[in-house]
Amino acid sequence: xxxxxxxxxxxxxxxxxSIKEKLGILSDAAKYDVACTSSGVDRKGNGxxxxxxxxxxxxxxxxxxxxxxxxxxxxxxxxxxxxxKYCLNRCSNDVPRASFTPDEVCxxxxxxxxxxxIEGLFLSSGIIQxxxxxxxxxxxxxxxxxxxxxxxxxxxxxxIPGADPMLIQRVGMLADRMSVNLELPTAEGLxxxxxxxxxxxxxxxxxxxxxxxxESRHDLVLYRNAPKFVPAGQSxxxxxxxxxxxxxxxxxxxxxxxxxxxxxxxxxxxxxHVNEDKALPALPGGPPLLREHRLYQADWLLRFYGxxxxxxxxxxxxxxxxxxxxxxxxxxxxLEFFPMxxxxxxxxxxxRIPGIGVKSAQKIVxxxxxxxxxxxxxxxxxxxxxxxxxxxxxxxxxxxxxKIEEDYITRNLLSVKERLPFDVGTVTYKQLSLFxxxxxPSQSSVMERVLxx
Length: 453
Fold this sequence. Notes:
- This protein is of the alpha/beta class.
- The chain has two domains: 3-232, TIM Barrel (Alpha-Beta Barrel); 326-415, no CATH class.
- It has 17 helices and eight strands.
- Strands 1-2-3-4-5-6 form a six-stranded parallel sheet. Strands 7-8 form a two-stranded parallel sheet.
- α8 (247-261) links the parallel β5 and β6 (265-270).
- α4 runs parallel beside α5 (165-172) and α8 runs parallel beside α9 (289-304).
- The longest helix is centred in the middle third of the chain and has 24 residues, at 199-222.
- It is globular.
């Protein structure tokens, strides 16, 4: 295979394990960490250093289950002193172990970037020796990547709870985005499945990163060339389905994280049964990917559509409808607001109409300043009329004679099948890795092409 030769020439080889073997272990070990995105930062290349990051300029590839795989996504090490029951890399598991050196992380990133296979780096890690020692190794790698290798592309780093706050501060001055994994939605779940981790230790670096971002923005107002601290913001990840929390509890936690910690994203990772442990659920139907999908849809409503968690769910209705997306479900439970006249309703109420998204709502507001809109205009704008037609009027008229009744509308909405990012009955949880043999030209033979010339 050509994969081995080129990167092996470019990267120092550990005497005990080849760089290819390490990459195979540590890229595969990172696939369960979904909290990586490459958006939210705008930094152009300066003509001297390597790489650039501009808003919207980061290319993304997606696995079959919808997860973003645009970055070189690796663990610094999969060795770990913790024994989290849900984690494949827990210390009690007998799995192949490997660790990169800081120079290997740097050279791998550069070799993949030069070949245009990646636009940046996502670096997480198991805990080796101690949180502070692990964070020191990550800091050394990122510092060399920026200062020695002059890499100016996108970097997302996981902050290690319990590490020295000074190290987190230093990494934050080099990385574009940082994240701290919440792991599980509640402290009770964390105590039962991850006894070595504590909610207080997880929230402390979240607060530190939030304060650092706020201070950095204030400094940029006063001084144009002030250094930026985590300019793309912070995110977190929750494992869904390993503990018995309801969707309502999960969305309430997410809403609080957005409000109290100014997070850019909360990622929801369907629990994958990789360990045999009596404390873990059996999940005979496989990972709860449809539930994960509904949580992402609801999360979008919280962040961009003005919804609140207690509007979507309640203690009496604690879980999302598996047949309808959260927005349609809300509309059907609040038919007293419908139909809405598209030429008169305000922007915020328009966002609550099924079939109308943020962009189409903005276009409608601009277009109706010039003339009254009809259904043909809405179709040109991009409104999904097969959903919206039950909830709107144009100039006082509905598109077709219809009933404003829950059962009637539900039957018609279900007849138009929702486009899911997977086939519920056949989906696999496995995330695309650098070594997968799949029919995606830009990713399927990445490792083979990178390591060959």
